[in-house]
Amino acid sequence: MLLEVEDLKTYFKTQEGTLKAVDGISFKLDKGQAMGLAGESGCGKTTAALSIMKLLPANGFIAGGSINFMGQDMAKVTGDRLRSIRWRDISIIFQGAMNALNPVKRVGDQITEPILLHEKVEEAVAMKRVKELFELVGINPNRVREYPHEFSGGMRQRVMIAMALACRPKLVLCDEPTTALDVMIQAQILQLLKNLQQELDLAMIIISHDLSVLAETCDQLAIMYAGKIVERSTAIGVFSNPQHPYTKGLIAAFPNIKGERKMPASIAGNPPNLIHAPPGCRFNPRCYAAQDICKVEEPPLIEVLPGHFAACHFVKGMR
After folding, report:
1. CA distance 319 to 243
2. pLDDT average, residue stretch 55-68
3. Looking at domain 3-73+203-318, what is its CATH homologous superfamily?
4. What is the pLDDT, as a whole number, of residue 213?
C-alpha cells in the first residue's frame, strides 16, 4: 500500500472558533492508482491534499488520525526528513498555474530547483531533464528560458505538470488541474495526465468539483461533504449506481447532452458552517430524504455493495 489515510482530522483556528475542514476521513491508494476527491467548494478536498504534503497555513493543524505514506506517518514527519520527501516522493500540481509559478524566474530554472536540491546533480544534467520533461508534456524544449507570462494558460498548466514530475515522484496530488481552462485545453490536460499515469506508473489524487473530469481519469472516487467522505467506490460504481443523496444530487446537477434539453437539477440550500456544523448527518438540512434520526445521529461509512461505501441511515432503501 502506497498511501493509507486513517481518520484524518485537519482543523483551522479562527477568530470565531475551530473550523473542522477535514473531520475523520479514511482512504487507501495503491501504486499506480488514480483516485478522485469530489465535492462542492469548501468541503475539505484541498485541505486533505495539503495535509498529506504538510503544507497547511499557520492556523491549520492535524488534530488526529494518521497519514501512512510508504510506511511512515506523515503527520509526525518534520524538518529535513519532511523536506526530503516533498517533491522527491510526493509532489503537487497547484490550482492556478500563474499564481503558483514565480513570475520573475525563467520556467526552466524553477523546475531545475527541486532536481538540484534532491539529487545533487550538475545544473547541466538538471536542465537536460527539464527539456525531456517539456517534451513529455508537449512543450517545445527550446522554451525553457522563457518566463511564465510568455505561456498560455494551458501551457502554464503543462509547465506545472512538468515541475511536479521533476524528481520522479511516486504520488502526485492534482488540485483542480483544469481550472480556468477552456474545454479543448481541459481535454488535452486530462489526456496528458492519463497518459503520464500509465507511462510512469504514477499514483495520483485528483481534486475537482467537476465529476466529468474525475470520470475521465480516476479508478476510485471519493465524494466529500462538509469535511467527511460520504461515498466511496470505483468511478464506474459511483456514476452508475450512486447511493448517497448528495452524490445523486451532484450527478443530477450536470446536464445530459444526450438527454432531454432542460435545466439540470440543483441541491437546495448551502454548505454548512464547519465551525458550527449541524448535528447528526451534516447533509440533513439539505437532504430530500432526511428523517428525525438524521438530525441527531451521524451515519457511519458502511459497505452497502461490494467495494461501495456510503454514509446514510437509509441508503439501502434508496437503491
Report:
1. 7
2. 95
3. P-loop containing nucleotide triphosphate hydrolases (3.40.50.300)
4. 81
Q: How far apart are CA 212 and CA 159, in angstroms?
A: 23
The per-residue pLDDT for 102 is: 92
Please name which of 269, 262, 261 lies closest in space to residue 245, comparing C-alpha atoms: 269
The answer to whether residues 96 and 46 touch, using CB atoms and an 8 Å cutoff, is no
Higher pLDDT: 33 or 180? It is 33
- Do residues 65 and 6 touch, judged by C-beta distance below 8 A? yes
Residue 105 confidence (pLDDT) above 90: yes
Q: Tell me the CA distances in angstroms from 223 to 28, 50, 184, 204, one per residue in order.
A: 14, 17, 26, 16
Rounded CA separation 162/106 (Å): 14
**Cell reading at 152:** 498560455
Q: What backbone phi and psi angles, to 5 degrees, belong to 88? A: -80, -45
Share of the chain above pLDDT 90, in %: 66
Which uninterrupted H or E stretch holds 188?
A: helix 183-200
**Number of residues in the chain:** 319
Question: How far is Cα 207 from Cα 49, in angstroms, rounded to an integer?
Answer: 8
More confident residue, 256 or 65: 65
